[in-house]
Structures are given as C-alpha cells and as structure tokens.
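Sharing a chain and its predicted structure for anyone who wants a worked example. Both blocks are below, sequence first, tokens second.
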Amino acid sequence: MELTHNPTLLWYVGIYGVIMILMGIYFSRKISNSEDFILAGKGLGTFVLTGTLLATWTGSGSISGGETSMAYSYGIIPALLMMLPTLVGIAILYLIAPKIREFGKYTVSGILEEKYGKTSRTIASIIIILAFVGIVSYQMTGLGFILNLTTGISVETGTIIGAVMIIFLASIGGLRSVAPTDALSAFLAIAALLITLPTIIVIAGGWDTITSNVPADHLTATGSLSTIQLLGFLLPSLFLLLGDQNMYQRLASSSGDKSSKKAQIGWLVGMLIISPAISFIAFTSLSMFPDIDPGMALMATTLAMPTVVGGILLAAATAFIVTTGNSYLLSAATNVTYDIIGEYINKEANDKQLLRMTKIFIIVLGVLAYLLISYFPTVLSVQMYAYTVYGAGLTPALLAVFFWKKVNKAGGLSSMIAGVVTTLVWEIPLAKPFDLNSVVIALPIAVLVLIIVTLMTQNNSHSTA
C-alpha cells in the first residue's frame, strides 16, 4: 500500500491547532508572576494534572519514536516492553511526590543544590538544557511528518512550521496555559486511539494477515535486537522519567498531595491504554506500509482509515507533540533563567525581568532545537541520546537525594559528570560501538561513581551541603 496525501486531514489538525492557540491566549491572561508561568500558581487539580502528565510524557517520543519506531523496526513485543519503564517510573514517583512538593523548587537543579552545593546546580542545568533541547527537536520533526502526510510538503518545511508553533505556544502562557491544553489533548488522544486500534486491524485484514506480512523476527521476544540492545532502549525512558524536571514541576504544581496522588494513578491507567494501543497500531502499519520512515508508522495509518477517524487521531497526535514540545522548551528555558542568568549574571533581576528572560530563552532554545535535529538520522536515535544524557547525568544523583542519606557532595558531582561525559563520548566520537545505546555504559558508570566516590570521601566530609 502506498502513501497518498490527504489534505482533508489538515482541517482536523488546523482546527485543533486554533483551539490550542485560543486556549493558550485565554489562560495567558491569568499570569501575574513567575510562579503562575512556571508552576501554574500551584493550583492544578486532579483532572488537569492527570492530563498534563499524560500529554507531556506521550509526545513525539511515543508518536514518532518510542513504541512507534520500536514496533515498526524491531517487533511488537519490544514495543510493548517499552511500557514497563514508564509504569515502574510512575510507581516510584508516586512514593516521592510529597518530598518533591516539600522542596518547592522551580527546577531539579534547585533540589540538587540543597544536597550537593551550588556547583551541582550549574552542572545540572547544562545537562538539562542538553537533553531537553534534544527532546524538543524531535517534537518539531513529528509535526513535520504530520504536515508531510496531509499536504505533501517536505518534512523539512513541515518541521520549520512545527518549530514556530511550538515556540509560540510555549512563550505566551507557560504552564498556566499549557496544562489545560494538555488535559484536552490527553483525553482526546485516548478516545482516538481506542477507536483507531480495532478499525485499523480490520482494514489491514485482521491479525493473521498482519502477522503474515511482517518479518518473522518481529514476532519474537526481542525482535531483531539482542537482549542487551533491547535493554539499551528500555533504560533511558525509565531514568529520564525518574528525574524528569517536567514531571517534578507538574507534581509541584498540584493543588495538594491528594490531587497529586489521584493524578498519578490516572496517569498510570492512561498509559496502560495509550502505550499498547500505539504499539499495535504502528505494528499494523508495518504490514500496510513496509517502506516508510519508522517515525511515520502511527501517523501513516490515518490515511487508510475513514477520514473522520484518521483526522481525530492526527489531531490528537499533533496535540501530544505540541504540548510535549512546549513543556520541555519551557522547562529548559526556566533552567537558563533561574539557574544560570539569575545565579551568575543578573542576581538582582526582579520577577518581571525573570519572566521576560524566560520567554526570550524559549525562543533561543527553540531555534537551537530546530538546528539539532539535522545531526541525528532518526527520531528514535535523538530520543535515546536525549534520554540518556539526562537519565545517566542527573537521575542517579537526584534519586540519592531522596533514598540515600549518606550520599555527599563529592559523590553527587562526580556521578553527574561521569554520566554525561560517558554518554557524549559514546554517542559522538565513538559513534555507538557495537550498535549499543550509550545508556548501557553510561548509567552503570554513573551509579558506580556515585557509590564509590561517596564511600571513599565519607570520612573527609561531614557535610552534604
């Protein structure tokens, strides 16, 4: 089956895009200070918080990379296994959410500073910016795929349009406007996926036909991957989620511990629907469209379905991609403003100046994200790089703050440096030896350095600040 562009689908994408812009403008009027912009005034209730957690985590990483690319490139079982790190991560965050709220920080860097000192804040900010700019970059490509499918314009041109939309929406209202649009997007997407899954299986000729049209190894436990290669895809998402500043900011933005706990349960239930549905739809796409870019697997199915169903799914995919891009761009800009500019360059900046600087850096980092995507061959490759920079560079040191009282400044700082340097060396000059994602090497090194350095320096340090 060949891809044929369907411009009618663009109406669904366009109408939903207009709704998101109008909602963003409406809620942006309620912003009076930085806390409103970054933490939505700490007033998010259960419904909105559930939606924003779902939408932020399920962006182009799932729609174009993650489960989608895994199902299309390697097999259905590896794709379904991609859900496990998320479920484990949500369960652990459920336990530490009250502690996250107690810290009351705008950024993860602020939490690390309390345990490891001011230097850790700077290192963490650099790591977050490196990772989050990468995550934003493939959200832009995801929109490029959608516009290519609907209009026939090149993915490159569509990516530019996507970049402009993501930057604009992130800059006008911050989390105050992003969270409500997230909630609408999440529940629309769940409905769309539940309709799409049975529909596309029927259109593809049923499960037996689908499995007969895919390579035999796509039905095995690890697909065409070795066990250690599969582990290299599973670990990055777990360790990103466990230390993800975006999620920490959202949990800190809740109206209270009760709404936070309910929202996290809703998030887990939502992922039990979203992740398998995406996996099976993308796997079905391989049977129907065997020669397309893996990142387009989910979205390509919209062209084979009734226009209404395809349009709703494409609108939902657009929403997930845009809201995730907004969120990570906002989060990275917050780090630049508060952890670098506010700490080292303009310590006397008032609230309005900080808010203005955050908006400026949203634009600057958005442009950098657009430039970055050209250096990676696929959405999945840049996704694994970004997740590992963050997961290996920050998460071991961050989790130690909550779970290991003995950890000290030397151990935390050493772990952060070891994790990010190992990732960058493995990915760039070494170019991924043995075709292994860097997390398989970088994460164990970061954890070992954390433990060994802490134990070696414990007698020399009586302070963890």
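Comments welcome. The first helix runs from residue 9 to 28.
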